[in-house]
Amino acid sequence: MDDGGSSILSFDLWADAQKLFSGGVNSPVRAAVKPYPFFVKSGKGPYLITEDSKTLIDYVLGYGPLILGHAHPKVIEAVREQLDKGWLYGTPSRAEVELAKLITLHVPSAEKVRFVNSGTEATMTAIRLSRGFTNRTKILKFDGNYHGAHDYVLIDAGSAATEFGVPISQGVPREVASTVAVCPYNDLECTERVLKDEDVAGVIVEPVMGNMGVIPPDIEFLKGLRELTRAYGTILIFDEVITGFRLGLGGAQSYFSVTPDLTTLGKIIGGGFPIGAVCGKRDVIDSLTPMGKVFNAGTFNANPISMTAGIATIRELEKSDTYKVTERATRILADEIDNSIKMEHVVNKVVNFFQFFLGVKEVKNANDARKADRGLYSRVHENLLKLGVFIPPSQFEALFTSLAHDDKVIEESVSKFKKVLEELT
């Protein structure tokens, strides 16, 4: 699979990028590919085609949004149709109503929705909402959970903290950090202690941790969070930016049968275009302006292109075998990886995303994940890339499958994973 050559290769673009961007990139994980990042010319189905005309089987998939694969024809058709009508109005459009109806139909907690432009904006808005609704200040999050790149969540924040060796980003004021409590993931005792001793507005959690590798929850942990937050009058926020519409149409809250007060969404609901959303109980969402006094606004909120791509994606999820295909692909690949690693290791998977950890016995929280052999993982990533398979360059990201990862693609992937893992482990 090749769409032609190019006179400007990744090496040349990387040289220019280092002069133009901090570290040569616009998001730090992209710099983790060694010796330098490859630049992408196009994507189709399960494949990326680089500027060097190399075809890669993609298990990053834009870090999760592309559950249908790259350039799905139904999404292309819908977006092209919308482009002919215009792409920014500054007023409401039919598409935002249609996408909100799909979200409220499928997501158990979603009675009303506010669209924003990213997962970061969604969690920022949800935290502000919880504070405004409860008239409290403190927030509780969990070590290793990543909720985007704003000040209140850049504390013990998954790969954002671990990869760069700082628990709190420089530039986050101490006054901000003092309003955020942190507990270990899957630890209800710590959670109850904080809720009992502090006036906590909201508890924000990834129902499946996806930015320290993949770490599933203890089901009793999620159920306990629901009971404790209800008992202490605290807003429970599920950050489903990754898990929303990936674990099923109802996301993690449907999969685990635990309904939060607020849910943040992103990634899949925009079909690969920039998007975020906060949804939840009617009275909480109505605290947002213009009905309430919790401010949120955005020129690009509910952008028609993102709305249209999201509608096309969800409608395809409703009628296709996507979840069956992606779960099967993940199960086969994860099991073969498990069997191919010849050392102590863990493979964590939930439905259709997974990660493997080398040199550890179990990974149930962020501290467990940090003990894994990141250097060896990086070598696996580099060797797979040479064979035409792209997995996340960071140990603390996830591998995703899509509708386009059919049996033929998985069979080819398995042989390459086996070769690399048996040689290195």
Automatic annotation (TrEMBL):
Named cofactor requirement(s): pyridoxal 5'-phosphate
Gene Ontology process terms (BP): protoporphyrinogen IX biosynthetic process
Molecular function as annotated in GO: glutamate-1-semialdehyde 2,1-aminomutase activity; pyridoxal phosphate binding; transaminase activity
This protein's record includes keyword Nucleotidyltransferase: no
Reaction(s) catalysed (UniProt annotation): (S)-4-amino-5-oxopentanoate = 5-aminolevulinate
Gene3D superfamilies: Aspartate Aminotransferase, domain 1, Type I PLP-dependent aspartate aminotransferase-like (Major domain)
InterPro entries xref list: 4pyrrol_synth_GluAld_NH2Trfase, Aminotrans_3, Aminotrans_3_PPA_site, PyrdxlP-dep_Trfase, PyrdxlP-dep_Trfase_major, PyrdxlP-dep_Trfase_small
Subcellular locations according to the entry: Cytoplasm
Pfam families with a match to the protein in the record: Aminotran_3
SUPFAM superfamilies per the UniProt record, alphabetical: PLP-dependent transferases
Residues with PTM N6-(pyridoxal phosphate)lysine: K267
Pathways per UniProt: Porphyrin-containing compound metabolism; protoporphyrin-IX biosynthesis; 5-aminolevulinate from L-glutamyl-tRNA(Glu): step 2/2
Signal peptide residue numbers: none
PROSITE patterns: AA_TRANSFER_CLASS_3
Key words of the record: Cytoplasm, Isomerase, Porphyrin biosynthesis, Pyridoxal phosphate
GO CC term, one of those recorded: cytoplasm
CDD domains recorded: OAT_like (cd00610)
Manganese in keyword set: no
Annotated EC: 5.4.3.8
Family: Belongs to the class-III pyridoxal-phosphate-dependent aminotransferase family. HemL subfamily.
Protein name, UniProt field: Glutamate-1-semialdehyde 2,1-aminomutase
Organism: Metallosphaera hakonensis JCM 8857 = DSM 7519
This protein's encoding gene: hemL
